[in-house]
Amino acid sequence: MSLSLRYAARSHVGLIRDGNEDSGYASSRLLVIADGMGGQAAGEIASAVAVQTLAELDSPHTTGLSGDPVRDLDDRVKLANTKIRAIIAQQPELEGMGTTCTALFLAGGSHFAFAHIGDSRAYRLRGGVLEQISTDHTWVQRLIDEGQITPDEAERHPQRSLLMRALGTTAEVDLDLTVLDLQAGDRYLLCSDGLSGFVPFNTLASTLTGYGDPHHAAETLIQHALRGGGADNITCIVADAFEQAPQGSRPPSQAETQYLELPVVVGAAAENQANLPSYSESTGQPGANPADPNATGMMNAGAILAAGENQSPAQPDAPVLPAPSVTGDTAEMEAVAGDEPEARRRKRWVKPAIVGGTCVVLLAAAAAGGYYYTQQQYYVGADGNGHVAIYQGVDYSLAGIKLSHVYTSAMVTVAGLPTSEQAKVDDSITATSLTDAKTIVSTLSVMESECAAIAATPTLTASSSPTATASPSASSTPHSTGTSTAKATDKASTTAAGKATASASAHSSSSATTSASPTAAPTPSVSPSSSVSSGNTVLGQLTADCPGSTG
């Protein structure tokens, strides 16, 4: 009896992201998940290149395979890294893009060759027990391994998304590569962190055990991730191993009902085929092998995946299903894993000699990979010249290397902000994206403008006497501005809410008469009750918190 896979693949852009940087591929003998990183640096290209390159393992037209599934999978992952590096060399603006890659390749019908790099995950359900068979290549996982934090603490760690290994970030690949035994009845889940990061382990286990059909299991997992927040792209593959009767043992009436080997492609690899760059000669590029005919182009991978767009699934020789929609198409196919084409014996390229090199080299490569990932993170802080700035990277130094730099400085002075916001800017405000960072800066700009308006109000209505009473109509800050600030401030997590009760109590009893500061005579301070309507609590709190205010 030969083992075969029954599978379903599903990808969803999520509830927040504008595009899908995940890619997935599933067939009777090959499962691949790739989670692209890079954002503006085209992570979707990196993940699509990885999936397309590994998909060539399924093509009968791919030459140079050794016949050893472990070696061939290893070579393909490293070739994907070479191609990504070649794209970056040709288009320097894409520096920083990369991808995770987790793959299972059926070896001899009873084993899987398993390759893994990054933080996408692979799980195995056997005998009703779910276990994670991959190890996250992240900073927090290293801290867990060293006993510095617990798994629960890792879930809340500010650097929990910091990758230490990925394809495309370095010329050499530090890959986890092993062989796993395969049994009939096993169920495998491959997923991006958009699923594992938002669905608890117990929910994964109950879903995989509760749904016998891979299609329903994959769909339910996606829905769980969306209900959990859906803040990232979500991609998963659910595959079941089962025994398939040999072709010769079937009754004549069933001889023609063979399962068709129809791979399924989801996510960026399905959506961005037309946008993938072509490859020029890559001789001399990092990791390139001039003797490798595939090092200079997508070769068969693009044709394999593109074929699905123009061929009907009814055609017996169609290598790929029509590309599924990124918003919800799923597929479940069955195929015989034992009917593999005869392997080509010509060696395509020699594995790099430094695989298995010294720990120093591996750690350096991992650190470099992690650095590239940090450059896709953003936060808001002070630029050293008294202005608010958006920083690219994380507010952290590793081995003496600062992992951030000023992305852009804003025309917002730190000194002009409410004192509570000054403290937050000095400590840095973490943003979920560049857009979020810009929103935070916009909110701070509104606060600075309001503080400036509040400080200027007494000069318009008060006498030159140190004791001044401002007319309620003199307030130039409309209530609509206060409402807008409250909403924007809530989104950016920059409110001074912690002071709300005490401030409101103190200001409600404060006098409208204050002592003039000898150093700020042109713009004397004023109590909130004399400049802001008592109904506008947010602006009342802001007034007391502005530079130069009393209360």
UniProtKB/TrEMBL annotation:
Where composition is biased (Low complexity), the residues are 462-538
> Any idea which GO molecular function terms this record carries?
metal ion binding; protein serine/threonine phosphatase activity
What is catalysed by this protein?
A: O-phospho-L-seryl-[protein] + H2O = L-seryl-[protein] + phosphate; O-phospho-L-threonyl-[protein] + H2O = L-threonyl-[protein] + phosphate
Instruction: Please indicate if the UniProt record lists 4Fe-4S as a keyword.
Output: no
Q: Where is this region: Disordered?
A: 462-551
Give the UniProt keywords, A-Z: Hydrolase, Manganese, Metal-binding, Protein phosphatase
Residue ranges annotated for the PPM-type phosphatase domain, each copy included: 6-241
The keyword Metal-binding belongs to this UniProt entry's keyword annotation: yes
| Entry cofactors | Mn(2+)
Under Enzyme Commission nomenclature, its number is 3.1.3.16
UniProt cross-references to Gene3D superfamilies, sorted A to Z: PPM-type phosphatase domain
Q: What is this protein called?
A: Serine/threonine protein phosphatase PstP
What are the top taxonomic ranks of the organism?
A: Bacteria, Bacillati, Actinomycetota, Actinomycetes, Catenulisporales
